[in-house]
Amino acid sequence: MAARRLSRRPVAESPPYSLVGRTLAQLEPAEGTITLTTWRTSGAERHGLRPGQARHAVALCAAVLATAGLAACSSSSSSSTSAAAAASAGSQGSVVVADLAPFSGPDAALGPTYLVSCDGTTAAINNAGGVLGHKFTCKGVDTRGDPADAVPATTQMFATTPNLGLVIGCTSDEAASVVPIINGHKMVAFCMTGQSEFDSVHFPYFYRLVPPDLEESYAMVAIAQQLGYHKIALAFGNDIGSQTFIQPAVSAISKAGMTLAANETLDLNASSFRTEADKIVTAHPDVIFTEALGPTDATFLSEVKQLNGGKMIPVIGTSADISPDWYKSVAAAVGASTLATSFHADNLVTETNLAALAMVEAKSTEPSVYAPYIEKIGDGTPGAVVVYSFAQGLAALKAGKAIRYEGPGGPTSFDSFHDSTGIFQIDAYNTTGAVQVTGNITATQLRALS
């Protein structure tokens, strides 16, 4: 059976240590916002977009930059001091896109992943003449994957980047701590966090096209159902992002009438996981649900295979496990052919042109002006013409037609918190590491597990 991956964007209940409150006490949230209370925990705690999600991250960040990124700068009155400075600088000023993410620490792979995407996308924007006379440039801001470091890094970012136009990244490692700061500066941010805290708190300048971890957990269970698995073992990293999958997965497993055979936490700083692997092998699960960053999954899964007599127990991963780096390390550890026949993962398909079309219809790149059009174009209005690309949408808008944009991920459905989770796509790795789309998980299937 070919390895499959499924797109995700669930919202899971975060563990009690998911956010960092003591740093938020130093903030002055913008009017109308709600402060999220969090605290630090020891060990590797990260999450927003897992490195395994590198492939998905690149696609999503490229989408954000190619669309929302343009919204960060404006020649009209700006929604932020930094954007105003960039606008007043005229054609001589470059608009900076800040990649606010871990460049060091346990989740160090995340920042560079987004930055590569940023560089490629801004190069394309600049080659097309820039935006309103401005060229775009990218800047990495290291949060170290720790809220205690992320808060001063974010403050420093605003203090030293007068021409800041957009923030990307802001993963689950630091989102709860930095989003109130970003929102207070009236800066647009497209964040790569699946934390459920953002499902019910409204930040006017916060946008998310990735699903909450809760739904991704449901998607993993839905895959297991499709494949006929009944006994499930969990093996997630001890970082914040990975841990948010556990409780919703346990709940969905129970609701689906499945059995939780084992639940092991993997220390991202450890060099061996034979104890955890042995417990799981001894439990004889049909499948292992996992997400562990860096080299952890490669080491863990190789030990599972060794302890299981050289036979791999099937694995279902999160969308973070769909990335070249993850594939390379795990394929080397367990074998490419083994991975191709025993691995599945969920992944979310996201839109890339929505914000750009919203700008066109709004006739402005000002966030406060074009933002309402994102929902209008994505969700559509009665009589709207359905378009499937930026070019089609642009032509229809020029012809005076109302449009509804539907990209590869299908139609959007934004809620009042600027979330649109899209649909989950089932993909497959072949023996060369290429990802192939094999199907979808519907909203109805996810709701049945919620």
Secondary structure: helix percent: 25-40%
- The CATH architecture of the largest domain: 3-Layer(aba) Sandwich
Categorize the overall geometry.
globular
- Class derived from helix and strand content: alpha/beta
Q: Roughly what is the average pLDDT, rounded to an integer?
A: 75
CATH topology of the largest domain: Rossmann fold
For the secondary structure, the number of strands is 15
Number of helices: 18
Residue share in β-strands: 15-25%
Low-confidence stretches: 1-56, 68-92
Q: How many domains, as an integer?
A: 2
| CATH class designation of the largest domain | Alpha Beta
Radius of gyration: 21 Å
Give an overview of the whole structure.
With 450 residues, the protein is α/β, with parallel strands linked by helices. It has 2 domains: 19-194, Rossmann fold, CATH 3.40.50; 214-348 and 422-447, 3-Layer(aba) Sandwich (Rossmann fold), CATH 3.40.50.2300. 39% of the residues lie in helices and 18% in strands. It has helices spanning 21-24, 54-66, 68-71, 81-88, 110-127, 147-160, 175-184, 213-226, 240-243, 246-255, 274-283, 296-307, 324-334, 336-342, 354-362, 367-379, 390-398, 443-447, and strands at 4-7, 94-101, 135-142, 164-169, 189-191, 206-207, 231-237, 259-266, 287-291, 315-317, 343-348, 385-387, 403-405, 424-429, 435-441. Strands 1, 7, 8, 9, 10, 11, 14 and 15 form an 8-stranded mixed sheet that branches. β12 (385-387), α17 (390-398) and β13 form a beta-alpha-beta unit. α15 (354-362) packs parallel to α17. The longest helix is centred in the first third of the chain and has 18 residues, at 110-127. The protein is globular, with a radius of gyration of 21 Å. Mean pLDDT is 75; it is low at 1-56 and 68-92.
